[in-house]
Prior knowledge:
The protein is of the alpha/beta class.
Amino acid sequence: MQRLFDVLRERGFVEQTTADKAIGDLLQEPITCYIGFDPTARSFHVGSLVPIMALAHMQQHGHRPIALVGGGTALVGDPSGKTEMRQMLTEEQVGENAEALKGQLSRFVDFENDQAALLNNADWLARLKYIPFLRDIGRHFSVNRMLASESCRLRLETGLSFIEFNYSLLQAYDFLYLYQTENCVLQMGGSDQWGNIVAGIDLIRRVEQGTAFGMTFPLITTSSGEKMGKTAKGAVWLDQDLTSPYDYYQFWINTADADTIRFLSLFTFLPLSEIEAIKDVEGADLNVVKSVLAFEATSIVHGQREAAKAVKASYGVFGGRSIDAQILPSSAIPRGSCEAGLEAMPTTLIAQDRLRKGMAAFKLFTEVALCESGGHARRLIKQGGGYVNGRRIESIDTMIGEKDLNRGEILLRAGKKRYHRIKVGRE
């Protein structure tokens, strides 16, 4: 089997390490590692996938990953990468978010039989007493060094609260605690966590005279320079109540040509040899590769059947093209025709009497969230980007209603690839 460190580096996970060779050698034998996740929302978004996928790769290569939910540190707020103080959450909000995140992490990592651990740092941080913590832990930290760290330095101009200033101590203590209780010797995280990771390694050396290691991942941006996971509709969430499997699939299939191979390496478990073999494809073949990326990424998060429904819905609205067996395993294909797959498409129920009266096109596009605002909808339609049942809408005031029903449905389209279905029913 290929060395894990080489796999992570070739797939694009490695930004910086405390020592490449030492970590490469360390990963030759089973170890325990961890990554922290602050529960500031009830769902991860695709921008969180790099660390989550890294945990999965660690486990697949025989290591024991710890996913640390920051129920304690979230009450403080990490200043890293932020220009202003994060919104303070209540303990109840943090607890609810932490439980939701645990369920999502279990799709990537197997927590059965202690193969991995799901821990919450509130279990030990909430029990700390302030004076003993300052005496036992705080004395090992240099204020000058902390102020020089990037996370603090960037915030000094806009204002850094004392509670945020303590965040680095708490994260360093997490690493020490896991080193002492779980024999955890490697912490991984985003590139903005480098200072916090190094602080934990230094604390382990000072308190336990132990050796620990750190690795960071690059901030993933698209080829256009945009932050990964940001769209016109907002963040792309892993929770299907926030981002449907169909929309999740559409996010990946709309990947820019220049990002496709890189995203296959980062966000799927396809062998590197297979990815290498298709790195030079272009044109129609590249569109097939994007379909593979979208299906694999959606399968990991939502399961094969939901991914298959998204494929069938996508192919249905793009003309019923046959589905390549390499994209969609036969075991995943739901029974029924492409029309069955359309059930995965975002759908709005509108009462019969409203359809009988009809609605102005720009208002309907706004109501079903194909456009962010009425102004956005007007511009879209005026520029020829609004469609109903495949027919271009000529005017913003075009009335859409009962006359447009086709087998009880109306299919709206914004631009080339964003669809929404209207069905008759109770709103």
